[in-house]
Amino acid sequence: MDVDVNELILIRKQKMDELCKAGYDPFGKRFPRTHLAQEIKDNFHKIEGKKVTIAGRIVSKRGHGKASFVNIKDSTGVIQVYIRLDDVGEKSYELFKKTDIGDIIGVKGTVFKTKVGEITVQTQNFELLTKSLRPLPEKWHGLKDVELRYRKRYLDLLVNDDTRQIFILRSKMVKAIRNFLDERGFLEVETPTMHTIAGGAVARPFITHHNTLDIDLYLRIALELHLKRLLVGGLEKVYEIGRIFRNEGISTRHNPEFTMLELYEAYADYEDMMRLTEEMISRVAVETLGTEKITYQGEQIDLTPPWPCLSMTEAVEKYTGICFESIENVQQARQAVAEYDIDFEVHDTKGKILNELFEREVEPRLIKPTVIRDYPIEVSPLAKRKKENPELTYRFEAFIAGRELANAFSELNDPIEQKERFAEQLLRRKSGDDEAHMMDEDFIEALEYGMPPAGGLGIGIDRLAMILTDSPSIRDVILFPTMRTREK
């Protein structure tokens, strides 16, 4: 019969009180280690019979009377510990008998191998380092409730090794990205998280208030505009890996707070950004996984460059049969997509409808790494206009597994045209589009001093982590995802 959790907590607190009365500190002190669990296993032939000092959390106990075995877990794995009354003395052994699964202990002892071949540390000295007042979930057999795993990530990390490996790999991935860019002469920088104007992306911002200045501020929705100011200032190759905040829906692909990489390179263009994107993602996969060929949710994906490349109009025609190059106005565009039941808005244009059709019908089908280029100007207010077709821009997005992974431009550096684009965005805001850009006069002024021609790139770190760890939800790769407050 299962024991009530509250009763178990009460029992553990009583044990803690008994320890305190006996003169023990149930929350320990500094305990320097000489070895980790996996290190002992990997080097057993060198350290057999030698003394080691280890520490970790008790994950299982067995044995009675004058000898016991416990398994303890540290950051590298689990190792068996053998503790015997004759070795540690009666006082220390009585202390050990009061330990529970979940307690953190320190052990000094000798490495040996049991008759059944289990590498073990035979205890000579034992210390209780932390008393656990709550039992581990499901008696250590794992944390199955997905929502609970997200809400209490510390428990998820504690009992699910797969989760630990996801976040270890994510850390290696970010390090590999930094190494790749640093090797190419990019400078890592930091820019403000709170902005007076929300810009750099089409998104709804979070708003906060600064009491001393008595002004509203926006949590940044992109890194772009401050990084471009640095190009004006003469920093020719810059990048930032930073948190972004967008007041939008939550799904398996979206979290209101997420991590972006943005980089800008003077005297480059979106063609350069295409090559950099392919090379970087391929290199990161090799450094973190050892291969360019991965599996994501059952799909075989080869990240080896170069990736297939289509214009947006070519992609739409390929998957829907609609040729937008022959469509002359918004009325014809609406008629062409009538069967797809797209919700039209007053300010929609031909380019906006093209983009809506692409996102609905084409994007989910782009499983293999694919580059889609030449986006409509209406949805690309910060990208350079194409000379060959002024309705389009020098912009591309890279897709893997049916989702956008990267977004890049030949950056618009004409201050006059940029101001006109912002003005058009303001009209959209007045028409009810609260995701349209605001006017940023300071950014325009910066451009007026002269920003060199440049290529810019943004990559969603969380989405890349999803692909490389074969995770179906963005929440699986964010340590503490945004969750609805639980009702009490």
What can you tell me about this protein's structure?
The protein is of the alpha+beta class. The chain is 34% helix and 24% strand. The protein has two domains: 5-135, OB fold (Dihydrolipoamide Acetyltransferase, E2P) (Beta Barrel), CATH 2.40.50.140; 158-308 and 368-476, Bira Bifunctional Protein, Domain 2 (BirA Bifunctional Protein, domain 2). The chain has an eight-stranded mixed beta sheet, with helices on both faces. A five-stranded mixed barrel has the order 1-2-3-5-4. It has a three-stranded antiparallel beta sheet with strand order 7-9-8, with no helix packed on it. The radius of gyration is 29 Å and the shape is elongated. The model has no long low-confidence stretch (mean pLDDT 93). Helix 11 packs across helix 13 (350-362). 35% of the residues are buried. It is built from 16 helices and 18 strands. It has helices at residues 5-21, 37-42, 44-47, 85-88, 90-97, 146-151, 153-159, 161-183, 224-232, 270-289, 312-320, 330-336, 350-362, 415-430, 441-448, 461-469, and strands at residues 51-62, 67-74, 77-84, 104-113, 119-130, 187-188, 194-195, 207-210, 215-219, 237-245, 257-266, 293-296, 299-302, 309-311, 370-373, 395-400, 403-410, 454-460.
